[in-house]
Amino acid sequence: MELIKIFKRLIIAVSLSVTMIFGANTAEAVDYYSAIYQTVNRYNHNEVECDWITRAILYASSEYQVDPILITAIMEAESGFDFHAVSPVGAIGLMQLMPSTAAYLGVNPHNPLENIIGGTKFIKSQLGRFKDWGTYSVTDAVAAYNAGPGAVEKYGGVPNYAETVQYVINVARNYKNLLDLIQS
After folding, report:
1. Beta bridge pairs of residue 112
2. CA 139 to CA 15: how far, in whole Å?
3. Distance separating alpha carbons of residues 15 and 175, to the nearest angstrom
4. Residue 163 catalytic?
5. How far apart are the C-alpha atoms of 72 and 86, rounded to whole Å?
6. Which residue from 20, 58, 78, 109 puts its CA 20 to 30 A from 175's CA?
């Protein structure tokens, strides 16, 4: 449980960094495109696909008002930016949507843009669902993306499932790496 607390603090620190970036009252633009593209390119060396994925993330982020760095960090943890990823339990595509979740969200999980939009809508709904849970609400929303919101509610936070704990750690690490790219 102590490991979860450490990584919750990391996500809070990262979230505060993003707040500082977004909340800055300067004219300095943040170059999300470059940081996201560089991250995608570590997995996928096709320039056209890297550009497409980057632009799709930025589009979904803008359309649904979700941090593009969070979307990217989740996608990296979910599929490693693989258009054709399918998990052993049946999750599909870049954002690894379960067919039932995709149906609920009204998207085709096999269509890459709809998959990204569906994943973005899902994390936005989890951020909204857990927004009043206090300091660790973003961590709980990320855990809900992996384990489902019912599990997070049942455990009162990140469920003590090895996969979910590792997932939260991976998303936090990915997020921090992206912030480092933006800030360099």
Report:
1. none
2. 10
3. 9
4. no
5. 18
6. 109
Whole-model pTM? 0.86
26 has pLDDT over 50: no
Point out the catalytic residue in the list 49, 78, 114, 163. 78
pLDDT by residue (tens digit) across 102-140? 999 999 999 999 999 999 999 999 999 999 999 999 999
Kindly state the helix (H) or strand (E) to which residue 109 belongs, with its residue range.
Answer: none
DSSP-derived secondary structure letter, 26 = S
Instruction: For the chain, give the longest Cα–Cα distance.
Output: 46
Dihedral of alpha carbons 164, 141, 117, 61, sign: negative
**Could you report the per-residue pLDDT of 141-156, keeping only the tens digit for each?**
999 999 999 999 999 9
pLDDT of residue 29: 63
User: Taking each helix axis from N to C terminus, what angle separates 68-79 and 112-129, rounded to the nearest 10 degrees?
Assistant: 110
Nearest CA to 64 out of 116, 18, 17, 16 is that of: 116
Rounded CA gap, 172 and 22, in Å?
A: 18
Name, in order, each residue with C-beta under 8 angstroms of 32's C-beta and a sequence gap of 6 or more: 58, 61, 68, 69, 182
User: What's residue 4's pLDDT?
Assistant: 52
